[in-house]
Design goal:
Elements lengths: L1 E6 L2 E4 L4 E9 L4 E9 L6 E7 L4 E3 L7 E6 L4 E6 L8 E9 L3 E4 L3 E6 L1
Parallel strand pairs: 2-11
Antiparallel strand pairs: 1-3, 3-8, 4-5, 4-9, 5-6, 7-8, 9-10, 9-11
C-alpha cells in the first residue's frame, strides 16, 4: 500500500502564501500520479492540481497562475506552493496518490484558513 502524510497548512491573511507538503511511503514505485484536492465548508471535495510521474501538471481554473504543484522524487514528496491566497481558498487540503496496484490513497488532510 501507499501511505501519505499531509502537512503545511495554517492560518494566513489574504494575499499571503503557504506551501503544503505530502510525503509518500510504502509501495511508492507503483504511484502513477499524485495530486491535491480540497474540501471547503459545505462543499464537495474538488481537484486543485495533479502531477504525473513524468512531470505533467494539471490545475483547476480557480488556482491557475497562483498555485504550483511540484515533486521531489528523492524525498518522495509532492508540494503545493500557494500564492495570492484568498478566503475562497479556505478548505481542508488532501493529498492523493493513484497507484497501479493499490488504487487510490489519501492523506489525512491539512487545514488552510485564509482571513480577509
Amino acid at each position: 500500500q501507499v501511505q501519505l502524510v499531509d502537512s503545511g497548512g495554517g492560518l494566513v491573511q489574504a494575499g499571503g502564501s503557504l506551501r503544503l507538503s505530502c510525503a509518500a511511503s510504502g509501495r511508492i514505485f507503483s504511484i502513477n500520479a499524485m495530486g491535491w484536492y480540497r474540501q471547503g465548508p459545505g462543499k464537495q471535495r474538488e481537484l486543485v492540481a495533479t502531477i504525473t510521474t513524468g512531470g505533467s501538471t494539471n490545475y483547476a481554473d480557480s488556482v491557475k497562475g497562483r498555485f504550483t504543484i511540484s515533486r521531489d522524487n528523492a524525498k518522495n514528496t509532492v508540494y503545493l506552493q500557494m500564492n495570492s491566497l484568498n478566503p475562497e481558498d479556505t478548505a481542508v487540503y488532501y493529498c492523493k496518490a493513484d497507484s497501479t496496484y493499490y488504487g487510490v490513497s489519501w492523506g489525512q488532510g491539512t487545514q488552510v484558513t485564509v482571513s480577509s
